[in-house]
Amino acid sequence: MYSMTKKIHFYKYQGTGNDFVITSDIYQITTQQIQLLCDRKFGIGADGVIVMKKDSSVDFDMMYYNADGSESFCGNGSRCAVMHAKFLGWISDQCSFNSNDGQHEASINNELVNLKMHDVIEVGSSGQDFIANTGSPHYIRFQDTLNLDIVSPAKEIRYSNEFKEEGINVNFVVSKDDSLQIRTYERGVEDETLSCGTGVTASVIAEYVKSQHSGSDYYRKVETEGGMLAVSFTKTELGFQNIYLIGPAVQVFSGEIGI
Fold this sequence. Notes:
45% strand; Diaminopimelate Epimerase, Chain A, domain 1; 17% helix
């Protein structure tokens, strides 16, 4: 039986329904503790855990962990960490921070967090589908409509021989005139989540490639199951640069829990 030895203060955040437990009480955390915090019946319940601490070279450091304890960069989680840093008084409306994949910059404008992502050099393909790494690997499939059940087809891709060892997130996307509609299955959660920031970013970049868009600047709204996000970037000879993931990050509640 799991023995709780330490009580920590936590904050629950969500970014378009992608939900996280955030704490700055600890920075070292075990897989067992992460799984407890994310358990929706015996813990708090979340798609992942974020630990944060102040840093002398940047505004803060953060690490993101999926519900199973595995590490990954998380776009929505990073946006929530930025909003939490402002709540703690660590930043004003602009910041730089270290995350799982290195240093990022972000700003807050009208309660929307604008997160600068790392450059994407290339987009791969698998038949008619696309593969892109936006801090986390993504498989993108464009469809005319979205099925009620995306978990079964997503698992076929995620656990295929090509991807089962490292894992991959799987996105099903419909292109509409005014936006993209997207549903995402996330590795590490091993289920559909209401939103995935890196998946949204990868899907907009994949749509740019698929449509053979000729312009350099691109902006697209994206409808997730949990709400609206937006992505902007500039296409250059070096790839996709100045990539921003834009959307809300909301504190839901806070409390204490033994871990």
